[in-house]
Design brief:
Layout lengths: L1 E6 L9 H5 L5 E3 L11 E3 L10 H5 L5 E6 L9
Antiparallel strand pairs: 1-4, 2-3
Length: 78
């Protein structure tokens, strides 16, 4: 399954819970800070994302949205 994450960088507080939780290492801390002076996270390797939603479940700020591409999923698994 192909997935995609969208991170609201202004909501992100840089706690890195999502980085620790992601089994595929999709997320990393950015080198630029946001308006609050916090280094937010971003999808460093978006091609690896499967849409498992673990990162979004771990985010205390609800700053991560996960999307799944059902067309990339075999019909028997839908």
């Amino acid at each position: 399954m192909k997935g995609m994450i969208v991170i609201d960088k202004e909501l992100c507080k840089g706690c890195s819970y999502c980085i620790d939780a992601c089994p595929l290492g999709v997320i990393a801390i950015e080198e630029k800070f946001n308006r609050k002076g916090i280094f937010p996270v971003s999808p460093a390797h978006p091609e690896k994302c499967t849409g498992c939603c673990i990162c979004a479940q771990m985010c205390p700020e609800v700053a991560i949205e996960v999307y799944r591409d059902l067309e990339a999923t075999p019909a028997r698994k839908r």
